[in-house]
Design brief:
The protein is an alpha+beta fold and about 300 residues long. Helices cover about 20% and strands about 35% of the residues. The protein is built from six helices and 17 strands.
Length: about 300
């Protein structure tokens, strides 16, 4: 019995090439780069098409039909097979990039995804599937098909550490230097992120968020690439009669292209939850208190 099973499998292996001359293997990185235009890079994987000429298939010309699916399996992007490029396969192994498999220039996206990709170039964080089918040049016969799942990483934006929200800074020190510190982007990105520090003054009669959304920033600078600290040499009049001020600050995290890295809420444009700090002219307050004490004594 064992001998008959071995003989059966041997026969299957011998006759399989006669009926299946094209095989497809998508060696897709399960966490590829989020910029679809970068899928030409080897780090994202490769597509391998093996072709063996035979009596059942002697035409080496093929087209690719690509589909991008969400985590539910619904198609969110599909290539136009009529406009797809024709590939002429050579006998043996044919290697292509994952960009060739995706066919970004020939891919039509559904809903708001088209606008998101045009604006940022990034695929939003989440779980997806890439399905590739090899068809004849007429586009009506599928010769091979494969689907591979992949993930686009979801990031936790940095947390502001110093000045902490509600902290009070001495104007005598703040007039020269204010040091800002924050945590790193989580998880770490293969490309070091850039951090833009933004500081807004909260004017009298404003709420912190009104100042944050409506005022021009007093500071709007990018720190050293990958650094989680920025030293602001303020050069602001901190010791005059208006020294007691309130500020709101944040950090905007940018990718290597200078685009905001999206967090859970894409509307905040890569900005961490802001923090409020105060600058107080403590010496001025002390002088004022002494005058009040003298007037009470007199």
């Amino acid at each position: 019995m064992k001998y008959l099973l071995l003989l059966f499998f041997a026969i299957v292996l011998l006759i399989k090439p006669a009926g299946a001359q094209i095989t497809l293997n998508l060696a897709l990185n399960n966490r590829p780069q989020p910029w679809l235009s970068d899928w030409v890079n080897p780090v994202n994987g490769q597509m391998i098409i093996s072709y063996m000429q035979g009596p059942a298939l002697n035409d080496p010309s093929v087209k690719l039909r690509s589909s991008l699916l969400d985590e539910r399996g619904s198609i969110i992007g599909a290539s136009n097979i009529n406009a797809a490029r024709i590939y002429i396969l050579r006998a043996g192994v044919n290697q292509f990039t994952i960009a060739d498999a995706l066919q970004l220039q020939n891919l039509v996206f559904q809903g708001n995804l088209q606008n998101t990709l045009q604006h940022t170039g990034r695929l939003p964080a989440g779980q997806y599937q890439l399905r590739v089918e090899i068809l004849n040049t007429a586009g009506d016969i599928v010769r091979a098909r494969q689907t591979r799942p992949f993930f686009i990483t979801s990031y936790q934006l940095p947390i502001l550490m110093q000045p902490a929200s509600g902290s009070i800074l001495d104007a005598r020190l703040a007039q020269n230097i204010i040091i800002f510190r924050w945590t790193s982007l989580i998880p770490g990105s293969p490309d070091l992120p850039q951090y833009r520090v933004q500081v807004f003054e909260i004017l009298p009669g404003q709420t912190p968020m009104q100042a944050f959304r409506g005022n021009r920033p007093l500071l709007n600078e990018i720190s050293t690439k990958g650094s989680t600290q920025y030293i602001w040499r303020t050069q602001l009049p901190m010791l005059d009669s208006t020294a007691n001020k309130q500020f709101i600050w944040t950090v905007q995290t940018l990718d290597r292209r200078g685009q905001p890295i999206p967090g859970m809420d894409t509307n905040i444009q890569g900005r961490s939850e802001p923090a409020i700090f105060n600058i107080v002219n403590q010496m001025g307050n002390m002088d004022k208190n002494r005058k009040n004490e003298d007037s009470i004594k007199n």
